[in-house]
Specification:
single chain, alpha+beta, Cyclic Phosphodiesterase, Chain: A, 5-stranded antiparallel β-sheet, two-stranded antiparallel sheet, globular
Length: 127
């Protein structure tokens, strides 16, 4: 990430108004390990990704995860069986709700694969 790329990303993001997102019950798949909250509606997230990927920061990158629906991961690096068990255990107690998507955070994993914030990019023109 360079200062020039940061400026380009912020120029794109200031044209996108913050938007509300909702999450309900966690889900797990019988085909892929992990537990996640699906995020709804998908359209503003997909639009944000499409516009963000017009930045020169992504010009040479193949965006191989384009078809993965928006989600909040709550368990990964587990087996499918563990995922299904975790999901079942959480169905009655996991919180549901909504949040305002008003920023993106550039995060980078450290050597222990813990993500560290490097930069906050705010949505909307009032930044």
């Amino acid at each position: 990430m360079t200062p020039e790329l940061e400026v380009g990303i912020q120029e794109i993001l200031k044209t996108i108004e913050p938007f509300q997102l909702h999450f309900d019950r966690p889900q797990a798949s019988q085909k892929h390990p992990g537990v996640a909250y699906p995020i709804r509606p998908e359209e503003p997230v997909n639009e944000l990704k499409a516009r963000l990927h017009t930045s020169s920061a992504f010009n040479k990158e193949e965006y191989s995860r384009r078809r993965i629906p928006p989600h909040l991961t709550i368990a990964e690096f587990v087996t499918i069986e563990q995922s299904l068990r975790i999901c079942e255990e959480l169905q009655e107690t996991a919180p549901t709700g909504s949040f305002l998507c008003d920023r993106l955070e550039f995060i980078v994993p450290n050597n222990d694969f813990h993500f560290e914030r490097r930069k906050i990019f705010w949505l909307g023109p009032d930044v």
